[in-house]
Design goal:
The protein is an alpha+beta fold. It folds into 2 domains: 102 residues, 2-Layer Sandwich (Alpha-Beta Plaits); 133 residues, Alpha-Beta Plaits (2-Layer Sandwich). It is built from 5 helices and 10 strands, in the order E-H-E-E-H-E-E-E-H-E-E-E-H-H-E. Strands 1, 2, 3, 4, 5, 6, 7, 8, 9 and 10 form a 10-stranded mixed sheet that branches. The longest helix is centred in the first third of the chain and has 13 residues. The chain is globular and about 60 Å long.
């Protein structure tokens, strides 16, 4: 059978999603827990790999197995063998045509900025601290240039292995909640460091160091050197992966706290 799982994790303790020899990763911990439940090796495929320090409330994975276990056993048994910073939020049997990565229609990310003159100790690993006051209207005007299908070479890292820099951004919104500035962005797929590079550029614009039109100039340059520095990983969350019918997965409310002004 093929099983899909919804995964939530705090990325701070891990060296990213992807399993790596000698390093603690989210994939490595999840596969170890699933293998314990199955009593046979289990390997998972995810909707989108996240970097070290990046969090997720809506990651989706799938795996194949000949071991017969109930959906409840996959859910509760796996959680019993996971560290506190990783949780399986739901489990569901799917057909063989489902693929966590290739069946996805879009991914949605949230970038959270703690915009305050003084840093927070409690939120240190959950948000990016930026002390220059940010103008939300300027940031939104700049973000609008990102909409549509276009070349995002200026926002891809040098380590990006994607064959094409073309991506389609379907929505982008900059929200102000108390001391938090939240960037919500959805696209069919993302390049390596794309959201973090966009966030860094938007913060520069929001602080008045560049005009909103600079975003368009950076896009048209198709040169990573023209954009701002890469924003910190700890402010980034993968919040949702959308799939076509008939795949209807549970929606968790865990990410709602990310919009609360006090978290």
């Amino acid at each position: 059978m093929r099983i899909a799982l919804g995964i939530e994790y705090d990325g701070q303790p891990y060296h990213g999603w992807q399993a790596q020899s000698g390093l603690i990763t989210v994939q490595g911990c999840l596969e170890e827990a699933l293998t314990t439940v199955a009593d046979k090796p289990i390997q998972v495929i995810c909707a989108g790999r996240t970097d070290a320090g990046v969090h997720a409330t809506g990651q989706v994975v799938h795996f194949d197995t000949e071991v017969i276990r109930s959906v409840r056993a996959w859910l509760l048994g796996t959680n019993a063998n996971l560290p506190p910073t990783i949780a399986v939020r739901w489990a569901q049997e799917v057909d063989e045509q489902f693929h966590a990565r290739f069946s996805a229609l879009s991914r949605r990310y949230r970038y959270i900025i703690y915009n305050c003159a003084v840093r927070s100790a409690v939120l240190a690993s959950r948000v990016t601290w930026y002390y220059y006051p940010l103008d939300i209207e300027r940031m939104q005007n700049a973000a609008n240039y990102l909409l549509g299908e276009q070349d995002f070479s200026s926002f891809r890292s040098s380590q990006c292995q994607a064959k094409s820099p073309m991506r389609k951004v379907t929505s982008v919104e900059v929200i102000h909640q108390g001391d938090m500035v939240i960037i919500e962005i959805e696209a069919n797929a993302f390049l390596h460091h794309m959201v973090r590079n966009i966030a860094g550029t938007l913060m520069r614009i929001g602080s008045g160091l560049a005009s909103p039109q600079w975003m368009q100039e950076v896009l048209q340059a198709k040169d990573r050197r023209q954009a701002s520095e890469t924003a910190d990983a700890k402010g980034l969350y993968l919040t949702e992966v959308r799939y076509p019918e008939p795949y209807s997965f549970p929606q968790t409310n865990t990410d709602l706290f990310l919009l609360h002004p006090t978290l």
